[in-house]
Design brief:
7 strands, 139 residues, Cytidine Deaminase, domain 2, single chain, alpha/beta, 3 helices, seven-stranded mixed beta sheet
């Protein structure tokens, strides 16, 4: 298992901005990869019954994002969501619903003062294993 996840700063900024725009509910989205490298962030609406503690991607937006990936020869790279009131660690529900073992899982916490915290995980051996996140500055 790869224990390091490198994200372009542009994608990090898009993810953090999306999370900040939904400070009282979990934001969610997908990251695609082209040639194994993270390429695009697709923000998807959260339609969960209680979006403050759970996320459920709006099906049409999720399908449209996956279709766009296929049409542009991209793969699903990561599933992203935020935790408005808790640390950036997978909840029991997050672990139970992690249905894409090939994807990374990225969680953003808004439960900090002035600094957003983001952590990455990979499902392995029935558990969510932390991976080191590194941000790549683009030229």
């Amino acid at each position: 298992m790869n224990t390091e996840l490198v994200l372009p700063r542009k994608l990090v900024n898009q993810i953090l901005t999306h999370a900040q725009q939904h400070e009282h509910s979990e934001s969610c989205g997908l990251i695609s990869a082209s040639g194994g490298s993270p390429a695009h962030y697709y923000a998807v609406k959260n339609i969960a019954a209680d979006p403050s503690v759970h996320f459920e991607m709006e099906p049409k937006q999720q399908i449209a994002a996956m279709k766009h990936m296929r049409e542009h020869d991209e793969d699903l790279f990561a599933i992203v969501h935020s935790h408005p009131e808790s640390p950036p660690v997978p909840s029991a529900t997050d672990m139970q619903e992690a249905g894409y073992p090939e994807a990374y899982y990225i969680i953003v916490s808004l439960n900090t003062r002035g600094v957003l915290e983001m952590r990455g995980f990979k499902k392995a051996d029935g558990d969510m294993q932390p991976v080191e996140l590194r941000y790549e500055h683009e030229d």
